[in-house]
Design a protein that fits this description.
It is a single chain. By secondary structure, the chain is of the alpha/beta class. It folds into two domains: 127 residues, Alpha-Beta Complex (Aspartate Aminotransferase, domain 1); 232 residues, Type I PLP-dependent aspartate aminotransferase-like (Major domain) (Aspartate Aminotransferase, domain 2, 3-Layer(aba) Sandwich). The chain has 15 helices and 13 strands. α14 crosses α15. The longest helix is centred in the C-terminal third of the chain and has 33 residues. It starts with 11 loop residues before the first helix and ends with a helix.
Length: 394
């Protein structure tokens, strides 16, 4: 059976994590994996989550199945959180999935059923799992220009030149906010232009929303996706609660489909359910019920929103402090973009060789493309990090 197989490539993030864990140096820093860490270098359980989880344990009376489409109260709550009043709810359908990745998987399968072997356009660069997931789903991934490594800004004119040339058979994968891996995001005005382009060309939008609330705030970060939902007849959105609820290991996500009318929405919903049944049969409920309880309880919701805002502000603080430290040591504004970007990640623009030196000589671990998890930087190590980065540049 297995003699015809070759070893699959190892995921770079988890390979880096293995190397980090094997490193016995006490001053090692992990900037690879995307998890939030507080001032104590710990990934905490949010207090609102703890309280909601206790309610779940106290009130739960059964462990029977919740159904193929998942926890309906959870899906409806996330729909309200994400879309607000931007679109007629009768056109929205949703199924719960294992995390944002599971949500993306369900929607990619649906795209391939509607447009077998169709083209899907992904930002250059993008989350490393986007491309292989598109390929594994039978789609043909292509890059559209996105990030300028020299300026640290979005290549918006080049991006729009590509998007304006697309047609109704093309799918465009967009990051709702806090672009991974670059941290460079579209402005509201740029989202308006993207919406006009998609409306004119008929290209189909697919939004990945993994970091809502980590950029400028919950409402602010939803501008782009709500703009598309309000302007366009159809779209898809994959939502993850891993980061903004701190539920990484619980695998909490939703796959949304917006159709032209309720009838087509029902058809899409039936197909999503069929995909779920053939993939993971039914989604896990524990994390989803925690989120449902939080969003249904005004006090818990307010507590969660305050905690999320504290996390967002801490990341902004780390960004500014790192940019200041590099500017002070290099006498250059070349890394000021770190403070200008948003979300958990930034792409430093270092070479693979420079990244290797940082790992070998300074115990600073980041991906080969120099993506760093801002949320994982220990505040008391920022000076040493800045010294090391400036050192490899010289």
């Amino acid at each position: 059976m297995f003699e015809s197989l070759k070893k699959a490539p190892i995921d770079k993030i988890f390979q880096l994590l293995g190397e980090f864990r094997a490193d016995e140096r006490e001053d090692k820093i992990d900037l690879g994996i995307g998890v939030f860490k507080d001032k104590n270098k710990h990934t905490p359980i949010m207090s609102a989550v703890k309280k909601a989880e206790k309610q779940v344990f106290d009130n739960e009376t059964t462990k029977t199945y919740v159904g193929v489409s998942g926890n309906r109260g959870f899906c409806d709550s996330i729909s309200d959180l994400v879309f607000g009043e931007s679109v007629d709810k009768s056109r929205i359908r949703a199924v719960q999935a294992p995390g944002g990745t599971g949500s993306i998987w369900v929607l990619l399968q649906l795209i391939n059923r509607a447009r077998p072997n169709g083209k899907i356009w992904v930002s250059d660069p993008s989350w490393p799992n986007h491309w292989p997931m598109c390929e594994l789903s039978g789609l043909e991934p292509n890059f559209y220009p996105y990030f300028d490594h020299k300026t640290g800004k979005v290549k918006f004119d080049e991006m729009m030149e590509c998007l304006d040339a697309l047609g109704p058979q093309d799918t465009v994968l967009l990051h709702a906010c806090c672009h991974n891996p670059t941290g460079a995001n579209l402005t509201n005005e740029q989202w308006d232009i993207v919406a006009k382009s998609l409306k004119r060309t008929g290209a189909f939008p697919f939004i990945d929303s993994a970091y809502l609330g980590f950029g400028e705030g919950l409402e602010e970060d939803a501008y782009g996706l709500r703009k598309l939902a309000s302007e366009l007849p159809e779209m898809m959105l994959a939502f993850s609660a891993s980061k903004n609820f701190g539920l990484y290991r619980e695998r909490v996500g939703v796959a949304f489909c917006i159709a032209k009318n309720p009838e087509q929405a029902d058809i899409a919903f039936s197909q999503m359910g069929n995909i779920v049944r053939a993939s993971f049969s039914q989604p896990p409920d524990h994390g989803a019920e925690i989120v449902r309880v939080i969003l249904a309880d005004p006090e818990l919701r307010a507590e969660w929103e305050a905690e999320l805002e504290d996390m967002r502000e801490f990341i902004v603080h780390i960004r500014e402090k790192l940019a200041d430290a590099i500017r002070e040591r290099s006498n250059s504004s070349n890394f000021d973009f770190v403070a200008e970007h948003q979300g958990m990640f930034s792409l430093l623009g270092l070479s693979k060789e420079q990244v290797g030196i940082l790992k070998k000589e300074n115990a600073i671990y980041m991906l080969d493309d120099s993506r760093i998890s801002i949320a994982g930087i220990p505040e008391d190590e920022i000076g040493r990090m800045a010294d090391a980065i400036v050192g490899v540049l010289r």
